[in-house]
Specification:
This protein is an alpha/beta fold. It folds into two domains: 7-31 and 301-409, Aspartate Aminotransferase, domain 1, CATH 3.90.1150.10; 49-297, Type I PLP-dependent aspartate aminotransferase-like (Major domain) (Aspartate Aminotransferase, domain 2), CATH 3.40.640.10. Helices cover 35% and strands 13% of the residues. The chain is built from twelve helices and 13 strands. It has helices at 7-15, 45-62, 66-69, 75-86, 100-114, 129-139, 183-192, 212-215, 284-297, 302-324, 351-360, 384-400, and strands at residues 33-34, 94-96, 120-124, 146-150, 165-171, 196-200, 219-222, 237-240, 330-331, 343-347, 363-364, 366-368, 372-376. The strands form three sheets. A seven-stranded mixed sheet has the order 2-8-7-6-5-3-4, with helices on both faces. Strands 9-10-13-12 form a four-stranded antiparallel sheet, with helices on one face. The radius of gyration is 22 Å and the shape is globular. The structure holds pyridoxal-5'-phosphate. The site of pyridoxal-5'-phosphate (PLP) has 13 residues, from helix 5 and helix 6.
Length: 415
């Protein structure tokens, strides 16, 4: 194994980083090392410009006219197509709307309706909880439905699939461990059994190359406030493969999913395309913030992004294990970079306190109960020196025991 790089070597990596110039587009405070872009991405100047224009000009002066003159009505599909380019979806298959949780509800219902006679939903026991809460909510709407969980009912998702399974809801990258699934292989396996798949892309959209069309995926959902940098509470997206559009129904059939919303017809006639997944009036200012954020992505080479992401996570693992291994931190993420998203998680018995001490020192990651210190590496604005610095501060906190100060044990609502 190569020897541990020193600070000069790490700085040299920044010098030759092809993505380095992107950092200046973001408005990060100079005294912060931001390793939480997997939870809330950073703001770019493009976002502020879009929001200012949408609020002051289009709303302020254009008023109601802007639904037409500023293209507000078409934003969900316009932005869906832009995200589609990052997740391997050809045009007309992705729409931005609602939250990931709500979109899980809609896609689960759509998939179940497409597989009459099948009554099982499969998911992962260690999924992000909302996926399971929503699946349980769907199960509660029909007495014949059941939920099978990986980790509870069998060891792997694959073992749970049989001809009673209608749909599998699965994460591309696990929110806690950072484990990356093989999308093409699992999609094939699920479809060979006659079931449909919904991929949760919350931790892979904008974090690595994704190829939904190439994998032949059925549905996907994901959020835009993490790696895509759309802003706090930014609306989520839904992908549905074109071949399914004629069969899609979803229960949240509000007027925005109607084929002719401004005809105000008494009976519902769902839009034929991807707009069928909309429900009600869309949050235009949030959509415009997202539009600003997505404009940067037009310039990003996703393969270069992935290479840098792997280099950043690799470096962090090596530095933390070398500097902090003796203080009770244990790697939770896989060492296999091909099976890892753009995050690194370590377990520590006092993970909450350690993370609060890190945040006070300007190194911002997050804590996931019961013991995970989670660090996200967003290649557009995190550099190699940041990684070095973060590992060094973590070492200082652990070796001095400063995390034991009582103020770090005070729990906040959001961790
Ligand atoms: C994997 C995953 N799915 C779903 C969600 C929840 O999304 P929302 O709050 O937009 O419904 C999150 C949020 O962090 C997540 O990490």
């Amino acid at each position: 194994m190569n020897s541990l790089p020193d600070l000069a070597a790490v700085e040299a990596m920044d010098e030759t980083d092809p993505l380095r110039a992107f950092r200046s587009r973001f408005t990060l405070p100079s005294d912060v090392i931001y390793l939480d872009g997997n939870s809330l991405g950073a703001a770019s100047q493009e976002v502020f410009a879009e929001v200012r224009q949408a609020a002051m000009e289009e709303w302020g002066n254009g008023l109601i006219r802007s639904w037409n003159s500023a293209g507000w009505f078409h934003l969900p599909v316009e932005l869906g197509d832009r995200i589609g380019r990052l997740i391997g979806a050809a045009e007309g298959q992705t729409v931005v709307t609602d939250s990931t949780s709500i979109n899980i509800y809609k896609t689960l219902h759509a998939a179940l309706a497409m597989r009459p006679g099948r009554n099982v939903i499969v998911a992962e026991g260690d999924s992000f909880p909302t996926d399971l809460y929503m699946a349980e909510g769907v199960v509660s709407t029909r007495p014949d439905l059941t939920l099978r969980l990986e980790g509870r009912d069998a060891d792997t998702v694959e073992e749970l699939i049989d001809d009673s399974v209608a749909v599998v809801l699965v994460n591309h990258v696990n929110y806690k461990s950072g484990e990356l699934r093989d999308m093409a292989a699992l999609t094939k396996r699920i479809q060979a059994a006659g079931a449909l798949v919904i991929w949760d892309l919350c931790h892979s959209a904008g974090a690595l190359p994704v190829d939904l069309d190439g994998a032949g995926a059925d549905f996907a959902v994901g959020c835009t406030y993490k790696y895509l940098n759309g802003g706090p509470g930014a609306p989520a997206f839904i992908y549905a493969a074109k071949r399914h559009h004629a069969s899609i129904t979803q229960p949240l059939s509000g007027w925005w999913s109607h084929a002719r919303p401004f005809a105000f017809e008494r009976s519902f006639d769902g839009e034929a395309g991807i707009r069928r997944f909309l429900c009600g009036t869309q949050p235009i200012l949030s959509l415009r913030a997202l539009r600003g954020a997505l404009s940067i992505w037009e310039e990003v080479d996703m393969n270069a992004l992935r290479q840098k992401s792997i280099a950043l996570t690799e470096l962090f693992i090596r530095l933390v294990e070398a500097k902090c291994g003796q203080y009770g931190v244990e790697l939770e993420t896989t060492r296999d970079s091909e099976k890892r998203g753009s995050q690194v998680s370590f377990k520590h018995g006092n993970g909450y306190e350690v993370m609060q001490a890190l945040i006070e020192r300007g190194v911002i990651g997050d804590f996931r109960a019961p013991s995970t210190l989670r660090f996200g590496f967003t290649p557009l604005y995190v550099g190699y020196r940041d990684v070095w610095q973060a590992a060094t501060v973590l070492e200082e906190i652990l070796s001095s025991g400063s995390w034991k100060e009582p103020r770090f044990a005070v729990r906040s609502a959001v961790t």
